[in-house]
Amino acid sequence: MTNENHKSGFVAIVGRPNVGKSTLLNRIVRQKIAIMSDKAQTTRNKIQGIYTTEDAQIVFIDTPGIHKPKTKLGDFMVETAYSALREVDSILFMVSADQPRGKGDDFIIEHLKEAKAPVSLVINKIDTVRKDDLLPIIDDYKEQFDFKEIFPISATEGSNVERFLETLTEDMPEGPQFFPADQVTDHPEYFIVAELIREKVLELTEQEVPHSVAVVTESMKREDGDKIHIQATIIVERDSQKGIIIGKGGKMLKNIGTKARKDIENMLGDKVFLELWVKVQKNWRDKRTDLLNYGYKKSDY
Fold first, then answer.
1. If you average pLDDT over every residue of the chain, what do you get?
2. 195 and 157 share a domain?
3. Beta carbons within 8 Å of 112's beta carbon, 6+ residues apart
4. 51, 144, 226, 255: which has the highest count of C-beta atoms within 10 A?
5. pTM reported for the whole predicted model
6. Angle at CA 167, nearest 5°, toward 166 and 173?
7. Domain of residue 79, CATH code
8. Residue 225 CA to chain centroid, in angstroms?
9. Are residue 35 and residue 163 in the same domain, yes or no?
10. 178-191 burial, b for 16+ CB within 10 Å, e for fewer?
11. Do 22 and 151 sit in the same domain of this protein?
12. Which domain holds residue 258?
């Protein structure tokens, strides 16, 4: 039976790189659908996470961190973030309590002034500062923008996240349930598998490698032994990066594969045989065809 007063809506999460947008999204949907890393610009595509209760459904859109682009990939990421602001019912501007407001935040606030949807401020990582330090942060941001709500939370610890979700749900318009109740993302498994592999590359390799990496899931099929056989290619821009990812005697690639396989098995609920290749595609981040081939398509908005 459908609730007559059912609420639903779309909510965009925007902010500087590395303020915890993906961590919050994973907590909301209680599953890992967005990869996490302490390296900036981890999220490249728009990731949709679906939060469903008996009375409501909210589709959260986790956007790439807004930054000054230096490549065509960078342009794509920033345009993806801005496009998410155009057709949502609410916008969450996320900042980190342990970082002072900077030029990047001011830059985003200027763009938010043009947004039609109401904007709320989410101050994340409150577990990293003293309570006394929180009020000045709130006051400072209040002076910059007239926020609809202000939510101090810790996405890692879960502090205040339930209250935040309740308030957000109350603010949603009445509307239908867009997705089945058990669906937590609109992305296909192929996409999430590639993202989980990329997360391990970010985690295990040096600073120069992460931004140059793309991952493509080539095939996923169930073998006779009931294992899912996955083949994926890690793409880099230079031979030296290929060497780093393969590692001495293939050790690094094996390590990436082992760690990624565990996360993929958790997501799929099945045993997985993961086969990885590494391929060099020079300057792929500045080539439109390569960007399209590796899944960086212009936004649907």
1. 83
2. no
3. 14, 85, 91, 93, 119, 145
4. 51
5. 0.63
6. 100
7. 3.40.50.300
8. 34
9. yes
10. eeeeeebbbbeebb
11. yes
12. 189-293
